Structures are given as C-alpha cells and as structure tokens.
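Entry for S-adenosylmethionine complex. Fields follow.
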Amino acid sequence: MSKIGKPRLSWGNDGTLRSEQFDDVYYSVEGGVKETTYVFLTGNDLPQRFEGCEEFTIAETGFGTGLNFLVTWRAWLEAKKQKAVNQNAVLKFISFEMYPLSATEIMRAAEMFGELRTLGEQLAKNYPNDLEAGKHLIQADSDIQLLLICGDINETIDDMNFKADAWYLDGFSPSKNEGMWSEHVFEKIGQLTAKGGTIATFTAAGFVRRGLMNHGYTMSKVKGFGRKREMLIGAYETA
Ligand SMILES: C[S@@+](CC[C@H](N)C(=O)[O-])C[C@H]1O[C@@H](n2cnc3c(N)ncnc32)[C@H](O)[C@@H]1O
C-alpha cells in the first residue's frame, strides 16, 4: 500500500499556511477563498453546471486544508437553496492526499476561513482522527460524500474507477512538487474524466498543458488569480 507522511506546517500570523516540506503555500496569500472560487469553481463553470444534475463528481489532486472542498460545499448548499439543483442530488468529492492534516489541523485552518468556519467545524467533526493510507469515505452532509484517498497519487490513482465531471489540479507549484504532476497522473486523469468533463488549475506550466492535451483535453490559457498572469482550464473531448 502507498505510504503517507505527516505534513510539516508553518502557520502564519496573517492567516496563511505554508508547507515546510515543499516550501510553498497551501492557498493564496491574497485571499484563499476568492482564489478557490476563481480558479477552481469559475474555471470549471461551477456552480452553473450543478443545475439540474442528479449527481456531480469532482476530483481533486491535493486535499490539504480542505478549503477547495469547503468552498464547493457552500456553493452546492446555495444551489440547493435556490432550487437550481434537484433536492435529492448528491455531490461526490474525491481528493488525493499524501500528507493528510489531522482533524485538529483541519479545524485550525477552518478558523482562518471566516464565513466557512461552520462548515469547517462540521468537516473536522466527521474527519477520522488517525488517518492511515488508503480510502476514507467521509459523509460530510446527507448529500455530500467526501472520498479521501491517502497515499502518493501516482500509486493510489491506479485502482480508481470513477468518472469526474470536474477536476481541480491543486498540487503545490510544479517547480516545487514535480512528482505530483506526472505523465502517469495526466494519463489517469484523462481516463477518469466523464464525457463533457472539465479541468482547472492555477498553473500555466507548458508541460501540464501538453500532458493534459495528450490525454484528451483541449486546453486554454486564461487570466490567473490576483497577480498571476495566466492559468489553465480545459474541456475533455471524447471521440
Ligand atoms: C497546494 S496544497 C493543496 C491545497 C488544498 N487543495 C486546500 O484546499 O487546502 C497541495 C497538496 O498536495 C499534497 N501532495 C503533495 N504531493 C502529493 C502526492 N504525490 N500525492 C498526493 N498528494 C500530494 C500536499 O500534501 C498538499 O496537501
């Protein structure tokens, strides 16, 4: 079974969280919630695509603090409230993580997310205490399932067989965490995407764009978040 490790975290007074292993931040210092909304939700045309669905599957590389999950959860709740989504519809969120935070760390991070704090507390309450390598199904809410897959994505992705409607690629920067942005992962992402599926990532790295293009995606560069010039979005083209 794939191994997991403990994350080495450095908590900033300004609400940021850094990984000492990867020398990179978990989310933008310019505003994590806004960044997630811009890069991953808008980049995948969400929440509009929730409309009328019975089930929607999102897959993510790098669960980290769960911020992307919390922002998506809130958008889903809002779509239900506005009756844009069938009341019985289910959101499945599948996330890969090799250095899982503990429930206490998830809670501490959520305290920095302002309006998402309540959802963060609910997540922390349902989050296993001593996470081991392997799959963990967390019922975050009656209609929200979080499947956390702990281990190196290069190995754990091999026994997955879902079809994602949307992908969030959120490893640390490719220059600091090259192993997570591998040709093998790109190939599997292509195989694990549903017809009409989409992808979004904060990076504009050429090898990421080409890697996804080689596995069925049409990729475009769009304006990045905040001071970032560009990022990538893509649509899965089936023959
Ligand atoms: C930028 S952070 C993710 C931020 C996260 N989406 C959030 O909302 O907080 C990148 C994550 O990728 C994880 N990671 C790095 N290498 C990995 C690997 N080979 N397999 C799985 N996860 C990995 C890190 O531990 C880290 O949590």
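NOTE: Residues 7, 26-27, 62-68, 96-99, 152-153, 170-172, 177, 179-180 surround S-adenosylmethionine (CB under 6 Å).
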